[in-house]
Design a protein that fits this description.
The chain has one domain: 60s Ribosomal Protein L30, Chain: A, CATH 3.30.1330. 29% of the residues lie in helices and 34% in strands. It contains five helices and seven strands; from the N terminus they run ββββαααβαβαβ. The strands form two sheets. It has a five-stranded mixed β-sheet. Strands 2-3 form a two-stranded antiparallel ribbon.
């Protein structure tokens, strides 16, 4: 079996609003996310990792923020599109490991729903997806509550 690994990162600034989208889950919050799309940092990081593992470049290459048709787009659509690009090349997702970095909101109650969404969009079992949440102990932009970030690793496999 051939394997490839990709890593992804995304960050967004908080703005006025009443919710954030993380892992395809709408989470009530006193702030929103400043973004061209729905600003889902977890979906963006996983999509970037998937594209990287498949040798397909980055998010901006496929989904530029200069494209008006992508304004407010559901980031789950971007992930499914990236999966198709990988599948055309013969790759399948083996597993995903991701971390959302935020001082707030508290994410633990939503992690299982995030895992389920990622698994559904990637056509894999929830057991193949791990999502963690971490703070930076009040350090940096996430610790000061200025924004949110996510890191992800995706492992792809293909028959030889």
């Amino acid at each position: 079996m051939r394997i490839r690994i990709g890593q992804g990162f995304d960050a967004h600034r908080f703005c006025d609003g009443n919710h954030v989208m993380i892992g395809g889950v709408r989470i009530p919050f006193e702030r929103g996310i400043e973004a061209h799309s729905d600003g889902d940092v977890l979906m963006h990081a996983v999509t970037a990792a998937l594209l990287g593992a498949a040798g397909e470049g980055d998010l901006g290459r496929h989904f530029p923020d200069s494209d008006p048709s992508l304004a407010g787009v559901d980031s789950r659509e971007l992930l499914r599109s990236a999966l198709l690009k990988a599948q055309v090349k013969g790759w399948q997702v083996i597993n995903v490991d991701a971390t959302v970095i935020a001082q707030r909101p508290r994410l633990a109650p939503y992690v299982d729903a995030m895992r389920a969404n990622l698994a559904a969009d990637l056509a894999i079992a929830p057991e193949q997806v791990n999502v963690k949440a971490s703070t930076t102990e009040r350090m940096g932009f996430t610790g000061r509550g200025e924004g949110i970030a996510a890191l992800a690793v995706v492992l792809l496999g293909a028959a030889s």
